[in-house]
Amino acid sequence: MRPLTEARPKPLIEAGRKTLLDHNLDQLAESGITEAVINVHYLPDQIIRHVASRRLPAVTISDERDRLLDSGGGIRKVLPFFGDAPFFTLNADTIWLDGPRRNLVRMQETFDPATMDVLLLVAPVVTTIGWGSRGDFLMDGAGRLRRPDRHDVAPFAYTGVGILKPESFAGKPEIFSLNRIFDEAAENGRLLGLRLDGVFMHVGTPQALAEAEHALDLYDR
pLDDT tens digit string along 10-52? Predict the structure, then answer.
């Protein structure tokens, strides 16, 4: 996202007159989630100041300024915060607009710890704004996800939103990618997907940000 991130962290870039971080925090709050943990690394003090007055959800900071732990290690570090309960994880570079029902609420209703280890919110690549690459997953009729083989056309993009179980992190190293947990769950038939009802925007480049701004402006009219 350079040059936009030269003086501010990516979560504080604005789209539709709201930071990417606040888009996600507002989604949590409006879906009844009352507490959130935010991992900070690059220019962390800006994020800490930004959320200092936030009350819903209440924010706990996990500081990684001295050592970046990757997507899986960052969550592993804060597992005590969640206890034994499944929890949401959200990436900071995604925005979505809900359909008739909130997608986070739909995910809570869908998640079944007896039959799944991970539930991911996925969106059709063809309708995703700012994607610009091949899809991440294929999904069968039961909602099970798998990675594409070399010649597969994967129709679904991972939105950066998931529900995970603390026990999936048992035995994992201090630093690792969350993809390791996804792949283990897929191998066991316990990686499930829920198709997003609404519009997904992947804000990974300045061009994608401009596309998201345009889409948010259209939907805000």
Answer: 999 998 889 999 999 999 999 999 999 999 999 999 999 999 9
Total H helices, total E strands in the chain = 7, 10
Residue 153 main-chain phi, psi, to 5 deg: -100, 105
Place of tokens 């402006």: 217
In angstroms, the CA 59 to CA 111 distance is 24
* Those residues with Cβ within 8 angstroms of residue 109's Cβ, 6 or more apart along the chain or in another chain: none
> How far apart, in whole angstroms, are the C-alpha atoms of residue 121 and residue 128?
13
- Give dist(CA 46, CA 66) in Å, integer: 16
Task: Report if pTM > 0.85.
Answer: yes
Alpha carbon distance 105, 66 (integer Å): 35
Q: Which token pair is 210?
A: 């401009």
Cβ within 8 Å of residue 46, ≥6 positions away: 8, 9, 12
Write out the two tokens for 189.
Answer: 């038939």
Whether the CB-CB separation of 9 and 47 falls below 8 Å is answered with yes
Give per-residue pLDDT as tens, 191-214: 999 999 999 998 878 888 888 888
Nearest-10 crossing angle of helices 179-187, 70-77: 90
Rounded Cα distance between 14 and 22, Å, is 9
